[in-house]
Amino acid sequence: MTIYDYSFSKLTGSETVPLSHYRNQVLLIVNTASKCGFTPQYEGLEKLYKGYKDQGFTVLGFPSDSFLNQEFADGEKTAEFCKLNYGVTFPLFQKSKMKGKEMNPLFHELLEESGEKKITWNFNKFLVDRGGKVVHYYGSRTKPEAIESEIQALLKK
Description:
Elements: E1 7-9, E2 16-18, E3 26-32, H1 41-52, E4 57-63, H2 75-86, H3 105-114, E5 125-128, E6 134-138, H4 148-156
C-alpha cells in the first residue's frame, strides 16, 4: 500500500477524503493534540501551510489522545480550539490512535517507511515528497519552522 490508498473522515462533518486528493503535493503529516506542551506548534504548522500551499504543500493534522488524553473527546471542540487559538485552516481529520492495535494505519505505514519504531508523543512529523515517499521523520521537539528549508527544497523538485 501507499499513503494514497487511505481515506479519512474530516474532523467535522461527514466528508471522507482520500489521500490521493493530495497526490503530487509535498505533505507534512502530523499527529496533533490540543492540550499538550507542544500544542503551540499549531502556529508554525499554519504559517508553513499558508506560506506554501499555493506551491503544492499541505499539512495534514491527525488529532490523537493516545498520550495522556491530551485531546478533546469532541471533534467540534478540537476544531474550534484550533481555529480560535491558532487560526488553523489546514486539513484536520478525525481523532485517531497512535499506538497499539488500533493505531491509525497511515501512521503505521509512515513508521515503516521511515524506519522509525513508534510514534513517541504528540506532534511527530513526517515530511512526504510529491511521489508519496517519506523523506524525513521529525520528533515532537522539532519545531515546524526548523524544517522550512527542506520543504522549500522539495517544492522545487
